[in-house]
Amino acid sequence: IYFGGSAGITGVQTMQSLHDLKKGQLYFDEIRIGNKVIHNSLIPEPVYEKKPLEFNNNSLSFSFRSISYKQAATVYYKYKLVGFDTGWNPIGRDKIISFLSLAPGSYTLIVKEFFPHKESGAAITYSFKINQPFWTTSLFVFLTALVISSLIILSVIIIMRKKLEKQKIKTSLQIALKSERERISQDLHDE
To answer: How far apart are CA 161 and CA 185, in angstroms?
Structure first.
């Protein structure tokens, strides 16, 4: 179909548009990490903030919307968190998904809409990573082991030096005592 106007002629592919209308459009309208909103949109747009999360920012909440020209009452949604879930989970009508205290790792949230008779609709995804606590990283474990080993070696060296110092003092006292005895003995024999 073509439309004419003051700005020119516009063409619309009706079959493609009808297919797009049937499929609908699903998008995240709000993403929260803890109580902080990192994405908020009333219109479908990509989510740009995808930096790795610290281990203590591991509670997330996603809300989404669907623009669909099918009967909204018959549409239902399921989600799967790849890296955590093994199967699909149903979502209530409030269209909010929350995760509390996720373990460190990489995850991908997939939200899908379904219509009656198991007809699948649009899907959206959001990938994120939760970093390990710094004290569980291999570098931290290595450095801790190195420091502890160094402290043990240093302690052994200090203990050995103290023992050696005591032994030197004891030996010098014994030598001084022996030489004093010899001197006294020599003095006694000389008289």
So the answer is: 35
3 state DSSP class of 85: coil
pLDDT tens-digit readout, 19-63: 444 556 787 888 888 888 877 776 666 666 677 778 887 888 888
For residues 42, 46, 47 and 49, what is the CA-based torsion angle, rounded to 10 degrees?
A: -130
d(CA 167, CA 164): 5
The single residue listed with the structure tokens 């959001």 is: 126
Of all helices (H) and strands (E), which one includes residue 163?
helix 138-190
| H helix intervals, the chain | 14-23, 138-190
Query: Using one digit for the tens of pLDDT, what is the confidence trace for 154-188?
Result: 999 999 999 999 999 999 999 988 888 888 888 77
